[in-house]
Amino acid sequence: MKQLFTRRRPTAIVILLALAVFFPVSQAAAQTMQEPAPAGSVPVDPKDPYESWNRKVFTFNDTIDRWVLKPVAQAYRTFTPQLIDRGITNFFNNLTELRNFTNSVLQLKGESAVVAVGRFTYNTTFGLGGLIDVATAFDLPERPEDFGQTLGYWGTKSGPYLMLPFLGPSTPRHFGGFLTDGFALPSAWDAVESPDVYFARAVQIVDKRADLIPAESFISGDSYTFVRNAFLQRREFMINDGKVINDPFASGDDENLMLDDF
After folding, report:
1. Residue 147 and residue 181 in contact, taking contact as beta carbons nearer than 8 Å
2. CB-CB contact of 172 with 160 (8 Å)
3. In 3-state terms, what secondary structure has residue 43?
4. Phi, psi dihedral angles at 164 (to 5 degrees)
5. Does a structural domain hold residue 108?
6. Mind listing the pLDDT tens digit for each residue in 52-107?
7. Count of structural domains within the chain
8. Predicted pLDDT of residue 192
């Protein structure tokens, strides 16, 4: 463990410095966007001040998905037996329990930390290395926690909505948490050696995209707006442990639907 943190220390320092600079800048930008717009100009939404740019990135991501990722995911759903597909999803979900545990501890959520340890122990020991989710059957449902949620727990503001190339919907807080979870905090992925880790990540991405295909039927109206609303609602739901305090984007019943995997 000491060797793990020694190897990650330079990366952790870089990320923490980036967070220290990026969050105040993004919040200042969002605050600036809240100022009254000049007469005759189109008002800027304070939660999505970069909408014009975000829509261009959304179109780019959608094109990549339509021509590359989605066809692969559809083939995966067609030729992979449901039992194997479920096992692959369970396996990758089990790897996230170390992340859930670490961030539960950082958020002072003792019960969630115990649940994460219990889930990983049960699923790894009795679930064939995580292929079977026996923990849920033992009344230990997953409690997802990430560093973006940890930042929110300690009062860090979300910042403006961002659509990132390849990565999809995000915010400065969410993206900072993503980087920290991936490079600064200990992860079960550290046990996977190259080049196997790249193959495993590719399978994980395809499996996740395949699981999202049925959710596409819920999308209605403007796809960009729907995805944005669903993502922001889902993040608020997770950060507040299931309590949605406000819904700044809700404008209809369809847009109140949340896609669990966003």
Report:
1. yes
2. yes
3. coil
4. -100, 140
5. yes
6. 999 999 999 999 999 999 999 999 999 999 999 999 999 999 999 999 999 999 99
7. 1
8. 73
Residue 42's alpha-carbon distances to 38, 113, 140, 148, in angstroms, are 8, 47, 49, 32
Question: Containing domain of residue 104, as a range?
Answer: 2-34+43-256
Do 152 and 161 touch, CB atoms closer than 8 A? no
> Residue 215 corresponds to which amino acid?
A
For residue 22, give both structure tokens: 């990026």
- Looking at residue 187, its pLDDT comes to 81
Q: What is the dihedral of CA 27, 30, 35, 37, to 10 degrees?
A: 160
Q: What is the pTM of this model?
A: 0.78
What are the strands, taking DSSP E only, across the chain? 162-164, 168-170
Check if the beta carbon of residue 150 is closer than 8 Å to that of residue 111. Answer: no
Number of CB atoms found within 10 A of residue 71's CB? 11
Look at residue 13 and tell me whether its pLDDT is greater than 50. Answer: no
Structure confidence by residue, pLDDT tens digits, 113-169:
999 999 999 999 999 999 999 999 999 999 999 999 999 999 999 999 999 999 999
Given a contact cutoff of 8 angstroms between Cβ atoms, the answer to whether 85 and 204 are in contact is no
In total, the chain counts a number of residues equal to 262
Residue 261 forms part of a structural domain: no
